[in-house]
Amino acid sequence: DRQVLSARGVTVRFYTYAGVVHAVTDAYLDVYEGESVALVGETGSGKSVFTKALTGLIDPPGRIESGSVLFRRRDGRVVDLLKLSPEEVREIRGDEISYVFQDPSSALDPLYTAGDHIAETITEHRGVPKGDALREAVSLLRDVMIPNPEVRVKNYPHELSGGMRQRVVIATAIANKPRLLIADEPTTNLDVTVQAQILDLLKDLRSKYGMSLLLITHNLGVVAETADRVYVMYGGRIAETADVYTVFESPAHPYTQLLLRSVPNPLKKIERLESIPGTVPNLIDMKPGCPFAPRCPFAMEVCSREDPPRVDLGGGHVVHCWLHAKR
Ligand code: SF4
Ligand code: MG
């Protein structure tokens, strides 16, 4: 298996009047070809900022302080997305890597039809004339299971339901056959039955288009149903990573264990992560040590003094925690 994307040491800070926000610290992630990877964490864990930073989508007062994001392009060349010029990254974004965000309404311009949105990205990245691009748009709408695509292609966003709007956003995201689709909470604003349909759609599209999927979610049900491998993020850092089975059956990080205990049966029921005692850490002017220490039932003296070590448990299972440190 070959990597499509490999991020290392990504650190993002926001320089605000209240202080320096350590949004993402030394985060890493690999995505292999054809794989579905979930990045899990509570609101404020840094998961959205990390995934935006992968293609340099960080605006002031935010700054990517360090890191590398190697990406294997369609032609086989490997580039560091954090070293390319903004123009070069723009060429890749929306083409070889594309994003689907939480709120479909903000991704769509009310003055443009479904077809306009899709055709625009096709024309921009592949130089296809508008008429041909609109014909492609109809077949893309069919791929995302929108009924009567010939009619819907002429609809404006307000003429579509929330679920259909998200399908249009997904059609736009896959229009250029990306190697990697990054979906940040793509179902959060939709009702439960539509959520399941959108997840099924993403799974189907992944195999049909032969792309990799990076799914950002706070929902363990989504993880259980869609991911091959999982990264758990806490306090702007990766806490643990393993294949999905290991994460649910033998989680090693106290935070992951707590997450799973807060959900009666993550494999059967769609639940949210918000029921853990304590609050998410304040990421302003962070001190060294484990960010989970104030909430951790196993916290030791060393935990609030020194950053937790990276411990390789084998088989791709890695945990960042003093409990597992070899002594
Ligand atoms: Fe808990 Fe310490 Fe492990 Fe952090 S490093 S999760 S505080 S035991
Ligand atoms: Mg988010």
Assign the structural class, choosing from mainly alpha, mainly beta, alpha/beta, alpha+beta, or little secondary structure: alpha/beta
String of helices and strands: EEEHEEHEHHHHHEHEHEEHHEE
The Cα radius of gyration reads: 20 Å
Strands, total number? 12
Global morphology: globular
With strands numbered from the N-terminus, the spatial order across the biggest sheet is 6-7-8-3-9-10-12-11
- Major beta-sheet overview: 8 strands, mixed
Task: Kindly report the average pLDDT value.
Answer: 91
Query: How many domains is the backbone divided into?
Result: 2
> What is the annotated CATH architecture of the largest domain?
3-Layer(aba) Sandwich
Bound molecules: iron/sulfur cluster, magnesium ion
User: How much of the residues is beta strand, in percent?
Assistant: 25-35%
CATH topology of the largest domain: Rossmann fold
> Which parts are unreliable, with pLDDT below 50 for 5 consecutive residues or more?
268-275
Total number of helical segments?
Answer: 11
Can you walk me through this structure?
Helices cover 31% and strands 26% of the residues. With 327 residues, it is of the alpha/beta class. It folds into two domains: 204 residues, Rossmann fold; 76 residues, no CATH class. It is globular, with a radius of gyration of 20 Å. Bound molecules: iron/sulfur cluster and magnesium ion. Magnesium ion binds next to loops. The site of iron/sulfur cluster has 14 residues, from loops.
Summarize the entry for a quick read.
This protein has helices at about 45-55, 85-90, 105, 115-125, 130-145, 150, 160-175, 190-210, 220-225, 245-250, 255-260, and strands at about 5-15, 20-30, 35-40, 60-70, 80, 95-100, 180-185, 210-215, 230-235, 235-245, 310-315, 315-320. With about 325 residues, it is α/β, with parallel strands linked by helices.
